[in-house]
Specification:
single chain, mainly beta, about 50% strand, elongated
């Protein structure tokens, strides 16, 4: 049989309920439990600098992270587009999400903000600001949050340059999703 990832509620109400008969838990039930408790992990690295143009100061735009690779050990996560990491598991999971970015901005005295979006909707609690003194400064920042993801939910990064239309270059970074059973 196929091993099935299940939610905590399903495990407790249908497989491991209080009213079941002695010895009624099958080997398949145990396999499903093991699969369900296994953490979901997604790690995407981007190491090829990606330059994108800021057409209008003060307007949020999606970040193209350039060529992004999922590393070995990634489970139930894929990356259908550069900069978009998607959960493809079956059961809803709660995720600890961490993104680290290194970037430069064309021009001097530039103030930018970055944020995470879920399915295209801003996660405003993740907004993180960064200032650059000169265009040659390479600065880093981290974005972190927790969220629940269902099948095909995806995470992306957006940025806004509050100072000008100076181009932003994402030099490198990493996206990490670590999922837990609900």
């Amino acid at each position: 049989m196929v091993d099935t990832s299940r939610t905590q509620d399903t495990l407790l109400t249908t497989i491991f309920n209080d009213s079941q008969a002695d010895s009624s838990i099958t080997a398949q039930d145990m396999r499903d439990l093991i699969v369900s408790l296994s953490p979901t992990l997604g790690v995407g690295q981007f190491n090829t600098p990606a330059v994108f143009t800021v057409a209008t100061s003060g307007v949020w735009v999606g970040v193209d992270t350039g060529t992004t690779q999922l590393i070995n050990g990634t489970t139930d996560i894929d990356m259908p587009l550069d900069g978009r990491i998607r959960y493809i598991g079956v059961a809803n999971r709660h995720f600890a999400l961490s993104i680290s970015i290194s970037a430069t901005v064309a021009g001097n005295n530039q103030d930018c903000r970055f944020r995470i979006t879920k399915n295209g909707s801003p996660m405003t609690e993740t907004i993180t600001g960064r200032s650059w003194g000169t265009g040659t400064d390479e600065g880093s920042l981290s974005l972190m949050t927790g969220t629940t993801l269902s099948t095909n939910d995806y995470i992306e990064i957006e940025v806004v340059n509050d100072s000008s239309t100076g181009d932003i270059t994402i030099v490198n970074g990493v996206i990490i999703l670590h999922g837990f059973i609900l």
